[in-house]
Amino acid sequence: MTPAPPIPVSSATDALNRIFGYPEFRGQQREIVEHVIDGGDALVLMPTGGGKSLCYQIPALVRPGVGVVISPLIALMQDQVDALRTLGVRAGFLNSSQDFEERRLVEAEFVAGELDLLYVAPEGLGTAGVQRLLDRGKIALFAIDEAHCVAQWGHDFRPDYLALSMLHERWPDVPRIALTATATTATKDEIAGRLQLTEARHFTASFDRPNIQYRIVAKNEPKRQLLELLRAEHAGDAGIVYCLSRASVDKHAAYLSANGIPALPYHAGLDSRTRATNQSRFLREDGLVMVATIAFGMGIDKPDVRFVAHLDLPKSVEGYYQETGRAGRDGLPSTAWLAYGLQDVVQLRKMIDGSEGDVAFRRNAGRHLDAMLALCETVSCRRGQLLAYFDQEAPSASCGNCDSCLTPPESWDGTVPAQKLLSTVLRLQRERGQKFGAGQSIDILLGKHTEKVAQFRHEDLTVFGIGTDLREAEWRGVVRQLLAGGYLAVEGEYGTLVLTERSSEVLRGEVTLMMRREIPSQRSRGGSSSG
Ligand code: ADP
Ligand code: ZN
């Protein structure tokens, strides 16, 4: 095969216009591109769909040598390289999926300077073979894509990324550009620290995604709620439904298919052929719904994903933002819908408590979950709260495109019910030395004569039956909101309720707790709520 001749480019704008076919740079692209062409390091925080790729692809074309792109998305490298080749860019990749002959060819092209861009997997860069190879060619720049994978607390941590600090030591004169769609200051600092990007200029784009409508509803009957959402608002649309477990993925994919909505499953338990087939069908066919664990989605460039639905609570706001960010890359109206209930909190806490991480890890995971809960329970604009989490300001106090702004939730003073609930937990513990989950505590407040109430003689408690003014669903809301505010915690395998340091603030009447009124979710009429 004769190597393709290089496309001569005279400037960044020339490359943008003639190779990529775009009239103008978007947002901060021009500044970033020029900075890297001049040899500067850069740390780029830009939301999904913001146009990160051009930020390193154009400098790679303009600077002499080959742009080396480190990406964890091995499954997508072939697609990325094919897309670039169609444009006439000389691109290649090196990863574990190739045989010896394919690798040898790419390596030869690299050494001969016949490539503009070379994609490599992070684990490859750690090997002496690849490092020696890179020494034999001229490197235009290093682009570290999905740079948040270096963050150890993050949801996408890849140990191989830690070794990338070596780039700076081994090739000190090659500019580096790290890119991510994760935006917290903490993650940014961790990326800069671990990759030794001390001199890098930081570019932070707005993380607002105005075309995404954020909605969070109480989980009653998730299957039916999901089906109603898809039928009423997204008939024939492509979308992603995220579930926490593989079993739940399989169950919901089957359920949607049985109800006339073409759906495919995706999770790490499926063999790699099935995963690849389902992924490529989702990308290429219209109107397919991918039901998946969070194993699916990073780097997926499908512009017309019209909705992202979460049937389980994400573990962090970062995760939620990343996952919902896969909707509406084309800028058209899209929905981010999440159904969550008390059981989610119990389950995630259990996962954190039972995890292998040390105390610091668990504390951190707990904090991430708390922030996610706070987003769920907020009575104000979801977008505002989301952006505030990323230390960014919302364009206005009311975005007009989230459930809080579209149908402002009624808030009510839940201080007294909160006190009743906390005293129930307190009394069970003090007077009986017992811990129970939300269900039993609520039964006590409602004065229910269940078997379990009789067994433990809970009728004798002074709090028995003092909460009949609220419905069970409302009590569950009170528990959720106390958990979200850190006034109550769940622990152990059975999700027992325990008081926290902050519980006393509520018990002593030092805080007023305004709560989100439990309204039946927009389109789910009737049915009893157990969320
Ligand atoms: P990210 O990696 O930040 O998620 P991409 O680099 O994949 O985003 O870009 C998202 C989409 O926007 C792509 O389809 C890309 O071709 C397009 N795009 C990027 N920059 C521009 C631009 N300056 N003008 C028009 N379209 C652009
Ligand atoms: Zn809003």
From TrEMBL:
<keyword id="KW-0413">Isomerase</keyword>
<feature type="domain" description="Helicase C-terminal">
    <location>
        <begin position="222"/>
        <end position="373"/>
    </location>
</feature>
<comment type="similarity">
    <text>Belongs to the helicase family. RecQ subfamily.</text>
</comment>
<keyword id="KW-0378">Hydrolase</keyword>
<protein>
    <recommendedName>
        <fullName>DNA helicase RecQ</fullName>
        <ecNumber>5.6.2.4</ecNumber>
    </recommendedName>
</protein>
<keyword id="KW-0238">DNA-binding</keyword>
<keyword id="KW-0233">DNA recombination</keyword>
<keyword id="KW-0227">DNA damage</keyword>
<keyword id="KW-0862">Zinc</keyword>
<feature type="domain" description="Helicase ATP-binding">
    <location>
        <begin position="33"/>
        <end position="201"/>
    </location>
</feature>
<dbReference type="GO" id="GO:0004386">
    <property type="term" value="F:helicase activity"/>
</dbReference>
<keyword id="KW-0234">DNA repair</keyword>
<keyword id="KW-0547">Nucleotide-binding</keyword>
<keyword id="KW-0479">Metal-binding</keyword>
<keyword id="KW-0067">ATP-binding</keyword>
<keyword id="KW-0347">Helicase</keyword>
